Amino acid sequence: MILCCGEALIDMIPIVSRDGQEGFAPHAGGAVFNTAIGLGRLGARTGFLTGLSTDLFGQRLAAVLQDSQVDTHFSITSDKPTTLAFVKLDNGHATYTFYDENTAGRSLTPDQLPELPREAVALYFGGISLISEPCADFYAALAAREAGQRVIMLDPNIRTGFIRDEERYRKRLAGMIEAADIIKVSDEDLGWLVPEAAGMAEKAAILAAGKIVIVTCGGDGAHAFLPSGAAVEVAAERVVVVDTVGAGDTFNSGVLAKLSANGLLSRSGLSAITAPQMRAALVHGATVAAVTVSRAGANPPWAHEL
Description:
Elements: E1 2-5, E2 9-16, E3 22-29, H1 31-41, E4 46-49, E5 51-53, H2 56-67, E6 70-71, E7 76-78, E8 84-90, E9 93-99, E10 122-126, H3 135-146, E11 151-155, H4 166-179, E12 182-186, H5 187-193, H6 200-207, E13 212-216, E14 222-225, E15 231-234, H7 247-261, H8 267-271, H9 275-293
Parallel strand pairs: 1-4, 1-10, 2-8, 4-6, 5-7, 10-11, 11-12, 12-13
Antiparallel strand pairs: 2-3, 8-9, 13-14, 14-15
Helix pairs in contact: 1-7, 3-4, 5-6, 7-9
């Protein structure tokens, strides 16, 4: 099982009614949520660990997870509200305003860490759940506890406008990068994390020497830098873009699903991964992301759609 650990929220997507009035339509979302349902729809055995509300939106999130074949019994429920993310689209590019105070997802604390089953061979972390306290400390503590025992993939998916204490966030994130076996960042994330270096390869080496570092560059494709020192590059698939909501998240699901299907989702498998094996995973991620950006909202494809 791949256990996705992080936020589930409602994306409020802008719409225009028939009479021209602007409004918002609720869509199930969240960076880690999107990756979880992407994995479930691709046929990978997937679980989801989050703080989940019992409110109307929380019930909707749980239903989408279950419909996408994601195991929800790891989630910690409460009657606190669900996080809302209002989306602004500019030529298909999404920016977000979050309403996250005292929510079910944000309120997790390290003393609530669950015991995990042996079949949870890989853990995936990311998103705003790594910024907001106290849940950020919950996920950091879980990663620290499981480091070296299970594969850990991290996508910080940095939202600079959401960070209140940059020094504290950077310190926490550095610990999670140290715990991770795979670090995936956008080119913008990489520049924020490693501003002092010039080239992408140099930045990736400084970020996490000896680990797999994946860098996505939107329409310019993706790169991977391997423990062996090899580098891999793949192009993005060309599609008509509706919006980019969930693009990076579903790219991650494609990468993880392919690594799992090819028997590489172990610490020994990743340490010896070859360039062709990594390329296959990146290509699969790009294919999955291309379907997602071709339709509204974060709506990852099912395996048969590929």
